[in-house]
From TrEMBL, chain A:
Name under which the protein is recorded: Branched-chain amino acid ABC transporter permease
GO molecular function, one term: branched-chain amino acid transmembrane transporter activity
Species this protein is from: Bradyrhizobium frederickii
Transmembrane segments: 38-57, 64-84, 90-107, 114-139, 194-214, 244-263, 317-342
Record's keyword terms, sorted: Cell membrane, Membrane, Transmembrane, Transmembrane helix
Keyword Cell membrane applies: yes
Lineage, broadest ranks: Bacteria, Pseudomonadati, Pseudomonadota, Alphaproteobacteria, Hyphomicrobiales
TrEMBL record, chain B:
Family membership: Belongs to the binding-protein-dependent transport system permease family. LivHM subfamily.
Domain of life where this protein originates: Bacteria
Record's protein name: Branched-chain amino acid ABC transporter permease
Predominant cellular place of this UniProt entry's protein: membrane
InterPro entries: ABC_transp_permease, BCAA_transport_permease
Entry's localization field: Cell membrane
Transmembrane domains' residue ranges: 6-27, 34-54, 60-78, 85-104, 136-156, 184-212, 218-244, 251-272
Single GO MF annotation: transmembrane transporter activity
Organism: Bradyrhizobium frederickii
Keyword Transmembrane: yes
PANTHER family xref list: ABC TRANSPORTER PERMEASE PROTEIN, BRANCHED-CHAIN AMINO ACID TRANSPORT SYSTEM PERMEASE PROTEIN LIVH
Biological-process GO terms, alphabetical: amino acid transport
Membrane topology summary: Multi-pass membrane protein
Length: 359, 285
């Protein structure tokens, strides 16, 4: 309670805007929030902006926006694992990239590009890899340390990168180029508004599913896991199983994003499974705000957008700026940009069907 | 016979390089509980300083001697300004040091461009033993690694500085009560670990040449080595580095390099899973 009061005060001081400040403070003081909620507004604004984007953007920007939406989906998968369950997965690209490679091989060797086959296939590949790696790292007689899990996932991703680079069947350094476009009957999804709305539709669907998941009793147990794993274990939850489940779900979402990415870009290459992309997704989520789903989406959009915008003139110094910004966020805004708008109480939110308050 | 000897020398010299790189990483991880993602970039900085000395026409030796001091000083400053805030949260420390590493790496990339810059070996030529030739510089690296290892061991186990360092590690509050300045000890430990990375970078740059991702290449191998060896002691990470370095260099002689590369990591992770305390458990030197 005190903590949320502090957060509300902070919101007042940072000056988000008078109306919103009052509503946060009101929500805190009146217990059950009858006032205005900020999170749904943010979500609605983002959705409307995303829906309108192709109408105002030029063609090449729509292609870029599609890529950003796919990366936002990928960011969502990492946010589930880190933001909600507190598992540091430094190897999320392993699931993203292996699904990308998987669907690329399907298209290249078996001529399978039907959307109803390749997307489930990619999701399953991500799920299977996450189940294997997560099961190995997280389950077992003794609980694994956070350090072991984060370094284990990092190592897995690095090893996959090396394997992809050296394996001739996977195209080696060059990856697999010119993947056939995804198809639905005779219609082919090529870059453009149709692909954009397809991806956006998938993102919204997955977002809603995730939202349901993290607001359920399962989500409550996950939040407890994140805050104090031992206490959750003492309550009788099987903490390791919970972790393995959410890790696997995260892997499946990453796999879905990876297969979309492969078909959108038309090629896959070793970086996609490697450390570079793994750390990129960490950046998105930390920037936007881990522990809120919309924070992950906003983070992906902002990081990619600014990077695209700066890449013409400041290509060389952009990574340095990114590093400095990341450091500043970690030091001074550990909850990310979304915490400028969102109070602590709303970020933690409520759980279960009746949305009971959990102070 | 000659072939086997050359192979053994290659394996030994690569093992020595990994040990040299892991020394600093291991000291910081064991003594402070921080997995420093910027360690690879400290290695890179050491290499860059050596290259700068060479490019400015100074003797390469001068650059190699200066590198550990400059990088150590930088490490001390970074610890006081930034790393100090991360002690309570190991994961946040990883992310924070990753950001630091990113800044250093991209700055160096900006300075050198996307090139591979070569630095000649200060001791060129080869040592001939019968019909076999081994690189004199690689041999020197092995000797220096052994000296540095012995020096670190003596520093930690025999001097009062080492005693205070270990006291701070094992029981910070008691150390403070005994009049040891723990913040200073943490700063000194971090600076020492960074200086070792700088030295490693300076010594290996003639072998691998200078490029922006030089440090990154060794970082994950280093982490795996520290975990295999066991966090908490000085000797653990060194032993782990020996094992990982030897395996990485030896396996490609008996199987396809791609498979060997991945196999080392898989074996290491499986080993750590079933023996989380590592090869050498326990705290101390």
């Amino acid at each position: 309670m005190l903590k949320s009061m502090g957060a509300a005060k902070q919101a007042v001081h940072t000056g988000v805007g008078d109306g919103t400040d009052v509503s946060v403070a009101g929500a805190v003081s009146s217990g059950r929030s009858s006032g205005l909620k900020i999170l749904p507004i943010v979500e609605a604004v983002v959705l409307v902006a995303a829906l309108l984007a192709p109408l105002v953007l030029q063609d090449y920007l729509t292609v870029f926006a599609t890529r950003v939406i796919i990366l936002a989906l990928f960011a969502l998968s990492f946010d589930l694992v880190w933001g909600y369950a507190g598992i540091m997965s430094f190897g999320q690209a392993l699931f993203f990239g292996s699904a990308g490679y998987g669907v690329a091989l399907l298209a290249r060797d078996l001529d399978i590009t039907n959307i109803f086959l390749v997307l489930p296939a990619g999701t399953l590949i991500g799920l299977a890899f996450a189940l294997l790696l997560g099961g190995f790292l997280l389950l077992g007689r003794h609980p694994s340390s956070v350090i072991f899990v984060s370094l284990g996932t990092l190592t897995g991703s690095y090893a996959a990168d090396r394997l992809a680079r050296g394996w001739y069947y996977l195209g080696g350094q060059n990856g697999i180029p010119s993947i056939a476009p995804m198809s639905l009957g005779t219609y082919e999804f090529t870059e453009g508004p149709a692909f954009y709305y397809l991806v956006l539709g998938i993102l919204v669907l997955v977002y809603l599913l995730c939202r349901f998941l993290v607001r359920s009793q399962f989500g409550l147990a996950l939040a407890g896991l994140r805050e104090n794993e031992q206490r959750i274990a003492f309550f009788g939850y099987k903490a390791q199983h919970l972790k393995a489940i959410i890790f696997t779900i995260g892997g499946a979402v990453a796999g879905l994003a990876g297969s979309l990415y492969a078909f959108h870009e038309g090629f896959v290459w070793p970086n996609m499974v490697g450390v570079v992309v793994s750390t990129q997704v960490v950046l998105y989520v930390l920037f936007g705000g881990s522990g809120t789903l919309i924070g992950a989406v906003i983070g992906a959009v902002i990081v990619e957008g600014v990077s695209f915008w700066l890449s013409d003139n400041y290509r060389d110094i952009w990574p340095i700026i990114l590093g400095v910004l990341l450091l500043v966020v970690i030091l001074f805004r550990p909850l990310g940009l979304i915490s400028f708008m969102l109070g602590e109480r709303e970020r933690v939110g409520s759980f279960g069907a009746k949305a009971k308050e959990n102070p | 016979m000659a072939n086997a000897f050359v192979a053994a020398f290659e394996i030994l010299s690569f093992g020595a390089i990994i040990v040299l790189i892991v020394l600093g990483l291991g000291i910081i991880a064991s003594m402070m509980g921080i997995f420093n993602f910027a360690q690879g970039e400290f290695v890179l900085l050491g290499a860059y300083i050596t290259y700068l000395a060479y490019a400015k026409g100074m003797p390469i030796w001068a650059g190699m001697v200066a590198a550990p001091f400059v990088v150590g000083a930088l490490g001390f400053a970074l610890e006081a300004l930034i790393i100090r805030r991360f002690y309570a949260a190991p994961i946040v420390a990883m992310l924070g040091t990753y950001a630091l590493g990113l800044i250093i790496r991209e700055s160096v990339r900006g300075l050198i461009g996307g090139f591979y810059l070569t630095v000649p070996e200060p001791i060129g030529g080869s040592i001939d033993i019968g019909a076999m030739h081994i690189s004199a510089w690689r041999f020197t690296i092995i000797v220096i690694t052994l000296l540095v290892m012995a020096g670190c061991y003596l520093l930690l186990s025999r001097t009062s500085f080492g005693l205070r360092m270990r006291a701070t590690l094992e029981n910070p509050s008691l150390a403070r009560a005994s009049g040891i300045s723990t913040p200073l000890m943490y700063g000194a430990t971090f600076a020492f670990g960074s200086a070792l990375a700088g030295l490693a970078g300076a010594l290996i740059v003639p072998v691998f040449s200078l490029y922006a991702d030089l440090g990154l290449r060794f970082l994950i191998q280093g982490f795996v080595a520290v975990m295999v060896g066991g966090v908490g002691s000085f000797i653990g990470p060194v032993a782990g580095a020996g094992v990982i370095g030897t395996l990485s260099a030896a396996l490609p002689w008996v199987m396809a390099p791609v498979v060997a590369d991945v196999l080392v990591f898989v074996l290491a992770i499986v080993f750590i899973k079933f023996r989380p305390q590592g090869l050498i458990a326990g705290k101390g030197v």
